[in-house]
Amino acid sequence: MRLVPELRPYAEANALRRGILRFASSRPGAWLFARVAHRIDRPMYRLTRGRHTFASLVAGLPVVMLTTTGARSGQPRTVPVLGLPTPDGLVVVASNFGQRRHPAWCHNLGANPEGEVVVDGSKRRFRAVEAEGERRARIWEWGLAIYPGWTQYERRASHRRIAVFVLEPV
């Protein structure tokens, strides 16, 4: 069983995918994707029986379905996020397209680090650990090889530190 869908570095992406990734990291692209992508990803995920999302098909990014427990509501919340396989394990980055605030799932993991992730149709329980120091720097560099757009997000979100979580199996 694969950890995540096939992962290709940005440098190996075709021109169309590189263009989509560049657009996604731009201000207009990030604004659009932040408001639209999850609305397309969920139905696409259901239609393909958990094999693909819109982002995984057009941009080649490894998207997984992350389920957290709502910090205030206590209810399960499922969102499509980029699930980056690294030597440290499966990683999710709370970039929120470089927006002013952290994504809601980041707050949820802070309140309750246990959850579930669906990777390639397979459910797995996890405990999220925020990467710090050298571990975070190593993961961040690894991630930039896959999606260099995080550099732009980091610039735009310079008022906050983008959280990087390792989803450790439980």
Enumerate the spans where pLDDT stays under 50 for 5 or more consecutive residues: 1-5
Q: Structural class given helices, strands, pairing?
A: alpha+beta
The total beta strand count reads 7
On the 0 to 100 scale, the average pLDDT is 87
Q: Helix fraction?
A: 25-40%
N-to-C span? 17 Å
Largest sheet: 7 strands, antiparallel
Q: Give the C-alpha Rg.
A: 15 Å
Shape: globular
Number of H- or I-type helical stretches: 6
Strand-and-helix sequence, N→C?
HHHEEEEHEEHHE
Strand content: 25-35%
Task: Please give the order of strands in the largest beta sheet.
Answer: 2-1-5-6-7-4-3
Give your account of this protein's structure.
With 170 residues, the chain is α+β, with helices and mostly antiparallel strands. The chain is 39% helix and 25% strand. The protein contains 6 helices and 7 strands, in the order H-H-H-E-E-E-E-H-E-E-H-H-E. The protein has helices spanning 15-25, 27-47, 54-58, 104-111, 133-146, 150-156, and strands at 63-69, 76-82, 84-86, 89-93, 114-119, 122-130, 164-169. A 7-stranded antiparallel β-sheet has the order 2-1-5-6-7-4-3, with helices on both faces.
